[in-house]
Design a protein that fits this description.
Layout lengths: L6 E2 L2 E2 L30 E2 L4 E3 L8 H14 L2 E5 L5 H15 L3 H4 L11 E4 L13 E8 L16 H26 L6 H5 L4 E9 L11 E4 L5 E6 L5 E4 L7 E3 L6 E5 L1 H6 L8 E4 L7 E9 L5 E2 L20 E2 H33 L1
Parallel strand pairs: 3-12, 4-5
Antiparallel strand pairs: 1-2, 5-13, 6-7, 7-8, 8-15, 9-14, 10-13, 10-15, 11-12, 11-14, 16-17
Helix pairs in contact: 1-4, 2-4
Length: 363
Amino acid sequence: MAPTAAVVNDRPDFLVTAEVPKSLQSIFIRDEDERPKVAYNQFSKDIPVISLSGITGEERGRVRDEVSKACSEWGIFQVLDHGVPQELVDSMTQLSRAFFALPAEEKLKYDMRGGKRGGFVVSSHLQGEAVLDWREICTYFSYPLHQRDYTRWPVKPDGWREIVENYSESLMGLACKLLGIISEALGLETEAVTKACVEMDQKVVINFYPKCPEPDMTLGLKRHTDPGTITLLLQDQVGGLQATKDDGKNWITVEPIQGAFVVNLGDHMHYLSNGKFKTADHQAVVNSNSSRLSIATFQNPAQDGIVYPLDGVVKEAEGDKCFMEEPITFAQMYSRKMSRDIELARQKKLAKVAEKEQSEISK
């Protein structure tokens, strides 16, 4: 018999993975305006799909133009012919699923709560969440290499640590290749964005979304934009990633494409481009039919990297204006973003409580 979710202060230590509970705990239930509007498997073909074949040769101009258009319109696109070996992708996926199938006590050896750098947790490592996401995650802080803490890297399943190292290195190469194209799409030298990142930071986050008893009441991952430069997402064929380009008025479910990576631009890239390229506004929904796995590789600047439009992006002669008042560090930007998101959630929760109390008084 599967273990039931252990709970401390309403926050579960893990989610049931072998037997689906009959209902959600209240801490997972979202307000109506945050709940899914589109089914997890109602796929859209709106997100651009770009082949990177010939990126180092005669096709580079085509790739640059297609990436530029996708970044301007969506801030999200998919890439094929990217050079990451399929055998490596398959191994990473299989071993990731094997980790989440381990007994809870094995996963909790790497409990990430309490400020630990990497490991396992339900929902996220952020403190102060008003509503939890329906997911388990395992996080690897993989770059810079000198900051790796292998005590936070699970040793089971056998061979996973080595596969993560190889996957991390391969995704770093793909990210740098894409950032070169994005730099050129802004009319800059190929290395402009990577130079702005100073020392590239990388974090690999494996998301496991178990079957959910009431998927219409919750989210696997709440609506957000990524704070960093670029995110490369590998998703299975179940479906659940959703995106919007009109501030949430309309959502689409990104079609899973075998062998593709989904590329999201983050807030840092949005600022570097002076707003010319969008930051991807997205979320993940869950379902009651099957579990889902995705692997997000976040490429971020160093903590002291400067967040400000790149030289040459703001063309004052063409009427451009810089949309930032002053440069800030990535650490400052990230801290402000997290504090703002938590405060907005807290205020919404307080407003909901006040509304309920007023309703009771009026009866």
